[in-house]
Write a structure and sequence with these properties.
- The protein has two domains: 5-127 and 211-244, Rossmann fold (3-Layer(aba) Sandwich), CATH 3.40.50; 130-202.
- The protein contains eleven helices and seven strands.
- It has helices spanning 14-29, 57-70, 92-96, 101-116, 138-147, 154-162, 178-185, 191-202, 204-210, 212-222, 235-244, and strands at 5-11, 33-39, 41-45, 48-51, 75-81, 121-122, 125-126.
């Protein structure tokens, strides 16, 4: 019988939670990895737990350490936008001085890991935010927006993507971050509805081809598979083998 590994995700907000549930969770299930996802805890009051958004780092740290302690056999990963990090996030100031996006990400994730100090943490910071992934296929992104009655802005999208070596390099300036560019092109763009629908149509495969840092993260998660050293787990094949046995 195949064994399953548990992997918990702490994410920034509802957009990231929806993206993980709709795309990453079913993908990792093919590697015998069982995913649970929740937004970062931002506060508690009178028994209620408030989640979503990027609070100060101490709250993020406490939430991560708490879940690692509660579920002490599961791995844990994160999906936070670089754009949403606060100044007190480990390695943040140093990362700003790095020249390449790979150096920025390495600086952040190494500092983050050292501060949490738990081998079951596999941190990930999305450069520069979730919407960067949508630029992996401008045509499908534009077609998705047209489904929602927006006018085509394909030429502008192509101009944006052609200006960068990778969608992950589209910068985090408040006026030119990936999501702000979409808002400028498609007035009324909504992250959860339009963004997640576009992501699903674009596909993980296209995102991985265009976004190397995102691809490396998924490779790392896939390698956690308890079966076949990270090779895809095909439930139907296992089911047939059980029937034959």
């Amino acid at each position: 019988m195949k064994q399953w590994l548990r992997l918990n995700f702490i994410v920034e907000g509802q957009t990231e939670e929806t993206f993980i549930n709709r795309m990453i969770r079913p993908h990792l299930a093919t590697y015998a990895i069982n995913v649970s996802v929740r937004c970062v805890t931002t506060g508690r009051k009178r028994g209620r737990v408030f989640r979503g958004g990027m609070p100060n780092y101490l709250k993020i740290k406490n939430d991560i350490k708490g879940w690692l302690s509660e579920d002490n056999e599961a791995y844990l990963t994160t999906f936070f936008d670089f754009y949403g990090l606060t100044n007190d996030f480990p390695g943040y100031q140093e990362a700003l001085s790095k020249k390449t996006i790979a150096e920025k990400l390495s600086c952040l994730q190494d500092s983050f890991s050292q501060d949490i100090d738990n081998i079951r943490l596999m941190p990930y910071i999305q450069l520069y935010e979730f919407e960067a992934l949508l630029y992996s296929n401008p045509s499908i992104l534009d077609e998705t927006m047209q489904i929602y009655s927006f006018k085509s802005k394909l030429n502008q999208l192509i101009d944006i993507t052609n200006a960068y070596a990778s969608p992950e390099e589209i910068n985090n300036n408040p006026n030119t971050a990936p999501s702000k560019r979409l808002l400028n092109l498609y007035d009324g763009y909504e992250k959860i509805t339009h963004g997640c629908d576009a992501a699903e149509l674009i596909s993980l495969s296209s995102m991985r081809q265009k976004c190397e840092l995102f691809n490396q993260w998924l490779n790392t998660l896939e390698a956690l598979s308890p079966n076949n050293m990270g090779s895809p787990y095909k439930p139907m094949e296992v089911f047939k083998q059980c029937e034959l046995g």
